[in-house]
Amino acid sequence: MSPFTFATILADKSIAVTSESEDKPGSPHKDDILRWVEAHPALAAWVQAVGSVFAVTATASLPFIHGYLTEKRENKVRLAALVALAQ
What we know:
Layout: H1 30-39, H2 41-86
């Protein structure tokens, strides 16, 4: 089985980061991933942008989720009251 190679061209275009793992073939080591991330300065900006979009979307959806759950709870109480009246 061939070892996993996590290669990238860094700023000086000569360094390759590799990881050989016998216990988990195909899985890079944490240090290799961190070196790869640090070698790409624009990656931090993209991760921040994606994280910001996710955070804004999650924050904007919270009132809708809260409203849905509140309405669902109120409907359950109304249904229980109707069943009690019907008996």
